[in-house]
Amino acid sequence: MQITFEEKEYYLKDGIWFFGYKKASQPIQDKLNFQAKKDLQLWEEALIDVPEILQASKLAEKRNDLLRALVLARKAYEVADFKVSVAARVSHLYRKLGEPEEAIKWTEEFARTTHVPLLNTRAAAFADIGEYLQAKKVVGKSLSISPGNPEAFELLNRVKSEYPGTYHDLF
């Protein structure tokens, strides 16, 4: 997609606006995103394949349009056969929107999964609401499945640093 703005031609690549090879400044990114919003929504609404819808959701997130990213992720969930990975995406977006309780609800159906991204976002959502023991339990499961998982280790460190109890209560 290309837009002329202030007599300059900008193009959209992977959710970021460029002028030539240079990334546009954030204020210009915001103005271009606003200007292109309807065209982007028309393009997004026409998508029917789950991978394309999820890619559009990620691009909307890059544009800092988290609500649109969430709408698209939920659309993908409705048509997906393998729902656990899409539920992880939806949960991630609810967390970014500051709604960890909703993030947990979206992962509840898959609480017994072995899908590490879902476990990680679920654990982070528990930590977000102060349920550190539950977060630690889910992180432990994630690490047992994927021992070198850096996101899980980061969550584990977060739980250790934020938990108001003693070290022994957790471990």
Query: In terms of per-residue confidence, which ranges show pLDDT below 50 for 5 or more consecutive residues?
Result: none
State the CATH superfamily name of the domain at 99-171. Answer: Tetratricopeptide repeat domain
Average pLDDT number: 89
**SSE class:** alpha+beta
Number of DSSP strand runs = 4
Q: State the name of the first-level CATH class of the domain at 99-171.
A: Mainly Alpha
Tell me the β content. Answer: 5-15%
| CATH topology heading of the domain at 99-171 | Serine Threonine Protein Phosphatase 5, Tetratricopeptide repeat
Helix content: 55-70%
The CATH architecture category of the domain at 99-171 equals Alpha Horseshoe
Main β-sheet, in a few words? 4 strands, antiparallel
> Could you spell the SSE succession in H and E letters?
EEEEHHHHHHHHH
- Rg computed from alpha carbons, rounded to a whole number of angstroms: 19 Å
The CA-CA distance between the termini, in Å, is 52 Å
Q: Indicate the overall shape.
A: elongated
Strand order of the largest sheet: 1-2-3-4
Oligomer: single chain
| Count of helical regions | 9
Describe this structure in words.
The protein is α+β, with helices and mostly antiparallel strands and 171 residues long. It has a domain at 99-171: Tetratricopeptide repeat domain (Serine Threonine Protein Phosphatase 5, Tetratricopeptide repeat). The chain is 67% helix and 9% strand. Strand 3 (16-19) and strand 4 (22-23) form a beta hairpin. Helix 4 runs antiparallel to helix 5, helix 4 (83-96) runs parallel beside helix 6 (116-128) and helix 6 (116-128) packs parallel to helix 8. The mean pLDDT is 89.
